[in-house]
Design brief:
Layout (H helix, E strand, L loop, with lengths): L5 H50 L11 H21 L6 H18 L5 H17 L7 H25 L11
Helix pairs in contact: 1-2, 1-4, 2-3, 2-4, 3-4, 3-5
Length: 176
Amino acid sequence: MPAVDRTTDHYHLSFLTTMATKMKAHRRALAVGLAFAGLATAAISMGWIWSRLVSTEYLSPAPRWPFPGLYLVEAVVLPAVVLWAVVVAHYRGACFVAWLAVGALATMALLGAMSIGLYVALALIFLVPASVLGDDGRSTVSQKVAGFLLGGLFQGGVMFGVVYFLRPPMSGPNGG
């Protein structure tokens, strides 16, 4: 029977452990970079849209209709939530929070498709892979899907609620 060299086995195990640790660090750095790129994309595009709205005097000093400002601020806050969740991925529930925010942004992109949904979708190009890579491995696929769907449903409810309750009064024979 040939002799087994235990030092070689130990070396290979040590090498594999080191490589796995380095890959995990690279994956985490990539996730943070993608989340930051998503936040930067959202902030720049929403800032550009805000400047266009102000320059066309669409937004008066005291607007009656809060949707443009609310929508633009929320479109920057949600990518910041994803970035936070990716950075603190070691905390329990951070992955779920990231998928809640991504679901809300996806609903925002879908319902705002004819206005600024494209710009939100550009941020999602970075934020979805960041959420996937930023996962610490403790959450299941069903938890991620549930977070995405709950975030989307909540965002849709907020958007429809704002439209229904805060809409400008209608004029005309049936509008009051």
